[in-house]
Write a structure and sequence with these properties.
The chain is of the alpha+beta class and 421 residues long. The protein is built from 18 helices and 14 strands. Strands 1, 2, 3, 6, 12, 13 and 14 form a seven-stranded mixed sheet that branches. The protein has a three-stranded antiparallel sheet with strand order 10-7-11.
């Protein structure tokens, strides 16, 4: 699997549109009401925008939907990720949207905030069918404006041979064990005990799991809340890997995988795409040399959940057909078939009971982690705040910035940006 979510985040930061910003921890509420969908098969033309691998494969896959709904025709337009945000924003402004589109999870609040998205008809789509963290990415001001399609989360990759020699044959389970394993692996000859990728766009996706696992909340109903003792403690723990020289502050693009294969790095945090990358770079025998475990726990073992949603636009010409197509894509058996075609991990929990997922040891860990995973707030300004957070994380790791100062600085910046509601 490609690094889909990271691409979404990087593009959104680069192409973020101007949003209405308020000061302080503002409040907002939604009053959209979901409309029902007419009974019966889908009919008419359904226009879809889809990005990345999904955009390339969905047109052929939709033939199965059209076989079940012979009076419907699905037209998929593939859109490159690096053009997607601007294309959607421009279409909303011109009222020239397709019927439905993929929406990156961190874009959901921004586009829902424009009033362009149709509330999810929960008489057709059952919220509890999805991983809770995934469903939460669709909810803006207490109203869902889409459906999770595929998901990804962060877990810990580790070299089994190095970890076993360090006294952790099944990997670490908590913060203390993670630190001890990193130290022991490095002491045994590895250049670095772990890689945590500070200072890169999207590094917040690695840091926030530590904060959430320590009980930190970065937002409430009134706005952002970064300046908490729990956040400061998590930032200090994250920083310790750099001050103790257990993790590199700089790692060239593309250097992680070969260094891990050579045993120069003992562990790293990443998403499901790295299973395929490591198998490809390490060769046929390397699959037995690494494993994944859930994020090490403190108060919990909460990780980050990302992926992509599907949303219908209020200007859709075939609203009912669009929602029926989304409902079909959300059926467990269809999610399993789509995983087989695209390697996109299902957002529907029941799909994970299939042997193609539950029978794979690495994938099972991702499925278990998805049950305890969170997304950032769906405020329209999240991408701007995330970019500010990444800057401060880089200072934390590379310049030794005080963790409490980092938490306050991020909070001040977030308060200045506002929620956009």
């Amino acid at each position: 699997m490609t690094r889909k979510y990271s691409a979404v985040t990087a593009v959104a930061v680069a192409l973020a549109v101007a949003l209405t910003a308020g000061c302080g921890r503002d409040s907002a509420g939604g009053d959209d009401e979901a409309r029902s969908v007419a009974d019966g098969p889908a009919t008419g033309e359904i226009t879809v925008w889809a990005m990345g691998t999904e955009g390339e494969k969905l047109g052929a896959f939709a033939q199965r939907f059209m076989a079940e709904n012979p009076d419907a025709r699905v037209n998929v337009t593939p859109v490159p990720w690096d053009a997607a945000h601007q294309k959607i924003a421009s279409a909303i402004a011109a009222k020239q949207t397709p019927d439905l589109s993929m929406i990156g999870t961190t874009w959901q609040g921004e586009f829902a905030g424009t009033g362009a998205l149709d509330p999810t008809p929960t008489d057709l789509i059952a919220p509890d069918a999805f991983f809770p963290g995934a469903w939460d990415t669709t909810v803006v001001n207490d109203t869902a404006y889409g459906v999770p399609w595929y998901v990804e989360t962060r877990v810990l990759y580790y070299r089994k041979d190095l970890a076993a020699a360090a006294g952790f044959p099944t990997g670490p389970t908590n913060w203390d064990e993670l630190k001890a394993m990193a130290k022991a692996i490095q002491a045994s000859g590895a250049q670095w005990g772990i890689n945590l990728q500070p200072g890169k766009t999207g590094s917040w996706q690695t840091v926030l799991p530590f904060a959430w696992s320590n009980g930190a909340n970065i937002a409430d109903d009134n706005g952002y809340t970064f300046d908490s003792p729990e956040m400061t403690e998590a930032l200090a723990y994250f920083q310790s890997y750099f001050t103790e020289r257990l993790a590199p502050t700089e790692l060239a693009e593309g250097a992680l995988e070969p260094a891990f294969v050579r045993g120069e790095i003992g562990a790293f945090v990443s998403g499901p795409w790295h299973v395929g990358l490591l198998n490809e770079q390490g060769g046929p025998d390397f699959a037995d040399k690494f494993a994944v475990v859930p994020m090490p726990a403190k108060k919990s073992a909460t990780s980050f959940i990302g992926g992509s949603n599907l949303a219908v636009f209020k200007d859709a010409k075939n609203r009912d057909g669009a929602w029926k197509f989304i409902e079909w894509l959300s059926r467990p058996e269809i999610q399993v078939q789509w995983y087989a075609d695209s390697a996109a991990l299902p957002a529907v929990r029941a799909a994970w009971q299939d042997d193609s997922l539950s029978g794979d040891a690495n994938l099972k860990v991702f499925g278990d982690q998805l049950a305890d995973a969170k997304a950032p707030p769906t405020f329209p300004t999240w991408e701007q705040v995330a970019a500010a957070f990444d800057i401060e994380v880089e200072k934390l790791a590379k310049s030794g910035e005080d963790p409490a100062t980092v938490a306050r600085t991020v909070q001040d910046r977030a308060a200045s940006i506002g929620t956009g509601n």
